[in-house]
């Protein structure tokens, strides 16, 4: 089996990374509340993720890519840094063409309202935010998601920094609990979904 490598994305990687996330999140209940059109959801999600990556984690944190031996992208982990909220509006405006293609003008207020609602549930203390992690269908069962997550979580442990995420499904929550995340509270007010906020404090690794 070809070895999987984890590397930070370059700007030119963002369209392909967005396509991987669109495939992975096509049936996600939270994203369905933001992009409700079933027929073209994957295409619209690709535009949405491209805008979000460029305005968020690529600028303020890291977009980690899992690559196969041939260089193709198997998975993506999107981490926004602790200071990502500062200047976020200006960065989002800069990616407006992607958001209009994804949501239409009428859908933008709905998406902003939902994202603002999720943001208000986040801890007040400094933390890295796992915005998304997704893998392609052909990579499932190969441990790609776990590799992506553990790579950055190990770095956060070394920096003594916390991590936070919202999990949409019980299956995903089991994975996150194995990685040290603890359930904080269920998040209400998301149409068709009840995500769980989860927080992970840094772990001290013993030799």
Return the structural class.
Answer: alpha+beta
Looking at the structure, the CATH topology is Aminopeptidase
- Biggest sheet overview: 7 strands, mixed
Number-wise, the strands total: 7
Residues in helix, %: 40-55%
The percent range for strand residues is 15-25%
Give the CA-CA distance, first to last residue: 30 Å
Count of discrete alpha- or pi-helical segments spanning 4 or more residues: 8
Named at the architecture level, the CATH assignment is 3-Layer(aba) Sandwich
Low-confidence stretches: none
List the helices and strands and how they pair.
Layout: E1 5-8, H1 14-24, H2 29-34, H3 41-55, H4 57-60, E2 62-67, E3 73-80, H5 88-94, H6 96-120, E4 128-135, H7 144-159, E5 163-167, H8 170-178, E6 182-186, E7 196-200
Parallel strand pairs: 4-5
Antiparallel strand pairs: 1-2, 2-3, 3-4, 5-7, 6-7
Helix pairs in contact: 1-3, 3-5, 3-6
Write structural notes for this entry.
- The chain has 207 residues and is α+β, with helices and mostly antiparallel strands.
- It has a single domain, classed as Aminopeptidase, CATH 3.40.630.
- It is built from eight helices and seven strands, in the order βααααββααβαβαββ.
- A seven-stranded mixed beta sheet has the order 1-2-3-4-5-7-6.
- A hairpin with a 5-residue loop joins β2 and β3.
- α1 packs across α3, α3 packs across α5 and α3 packs across α6.
- The protein starts with a strand and ends in a 7-residue tail after the last strand.
